[in-house]
Amino acid sequence: MGQSNTSTRPRRTAAAVAAAALVVVSSGCGLVSGTASAELLQLEPLSVTSPAVRDGGPLPSDYSCHGTVGNPPLRWSRVPDGSKSVAIVADNNNAATGPEVHWVVFDIDPRTAELAEGTVPVGAVEGSATNGKVGYTPPCRRQENYRFTVYALKERVELGKGAPLSETLRSIADKTIAWGRLTATHIE
């Protein structure tokens, strides 16, 4: 079972939250540098776990391009009251080529607290990944970190299936009020 990022973070103004969220998603769904990282850490924390992936452990090959299952199962908690939707972004930070987004799913009902492997919740929408495809694009590079970040949003994203990645990430950033992450350090 994964571990959560459960540090205590004070509440911030809406402007600080929006600025921090933009840094989160527009620069690789969590790649943070400089002073913006301090603002990012002020967002409300979500707990993100998985029965199949331990935070800091490997991503089982079943959830990579070497397997056939699709996305790993995820669980999250502590979605703030008043959240209107949840979004998930799966990405990696490739030092040589830059960040790559493998999956974006949004407009998940905020009462939803888990995602089964290889599925998308009823009513949720998938946007385009870095490669332009819609849906989960399994990662392939064995020695990279893969991050599954869950965002609680103050509004629905309201974009269509296959929406452009930059548009989707900006919309998620503008609406983020809380986030949490599960990181796999490599593929088994």
Please specify the SSE layout and strand pairing:
Blueprint: H1 14-26, H2 36-40, E1 44-45, E2 47-49, E3 74-77, E4 85-94, E5 98-108, E6 114-115, E7 125-126, E8 146-153, H3 165-175, E9 176-184
Parallel strand pairs: 1-9
Antiparallel strand pairs: 2-3, 3-6, 4-5, 4-8, 5-7, 8-9
Helix pairs in contact: 1-3
Family: Belongs to the UPF0098 family.
Organism: Planomonospora venezuelensis
Protein name: Phospholipid-binding protein, PBP family
Describe the structure.
The protein is of the alpha+beta class and 188 residues long. It has a single domain, classed as PEBP-like (Phosphatidylethanolamine-binding Protein). 15% of the residues lie in helices and 27% in strands. The chain has three helices and nine strands; from the N terminus they run H-H-E-E-E-E-E-E-E-E-H-E. The strands form two sheets. A six-stranded mixed beta sheet has the order 1-9-8-4-5-7. A hairpin with a 3-residue loop joins strand 4 and strand 5. Helix 1 runs antiparallel to helix 3. The longest helix has 13 residues. The chain starts with 13 loop residues before the first helix and ends with a strand.
